[in-house]
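Pilot study result, target chain (236 residues):
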Amino acid sequence: MGVNIVLLFPAGIDAKINASTPCIRTPLGSLSMTVHTSNGNVLDDKGVAVRVLPSGAFVYSSKNKHVEVEILQVVLPLPEPRFGVVDGYEAFVIRVRALESIDNLSIACRWTQLPVDATNGPESGECLDAQTWETSSTRVTIGTQDGETLAGRAKRGERLPAHLQTVFGLDTVIYLADGLSVPIPNLNQGELCQIHFIVAWAPQRINNDVATWLAVDREPEFILEQAGCADHLIFK
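Predicted structure:
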């Protein structure tokens, strides 16, 4: 199925890369995106197109008769090592537009294969839901905005429909054994939503145990600016 969608992120040059779906490679393995509705995984469709922006960020696009999806993947500049050293720092920003009313939308960042010999646990904070996987040598943290922050965005009309403000709450984000998931009960036809995930990894060393946690606690505007998408903070 060909992809012909209204661009939610800027235009770019069509890219030919091996990955057919967004994937972040870390020392513990790869993390990928899934976008499910009650009709299945949108990214399972064969019509995933990829373009590269002038900043070097990639945008993955897919569409079926129910939804159109764009996923921005960007390598972020490493944070200042004030509270520890981060070796890798990337993010996904997912934008979904409903072409008809849809139910049970779920947007998740998950390991393609669980890291061997890794332990994991939640590391939430103010405005943040996060989970870390670690081995004797490496820590990898995934972070996203918590439910209360999402409710505030919905109330202010910041790339989330207003009716979701009463749905989102402290327990919105689901902690999976292999990642994090943000469920969105429903979108009405024409409605748009945006969710992001930030991934950071670092070596295990003394006084470096909060570096990845601090790194994933960033606003979506920071990610969009790094990708050169400042003009697309609002959907076009």
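One observation from the pilot: The mean pLDDT is 87. A full batch analysis is planned for the follow-on phase.
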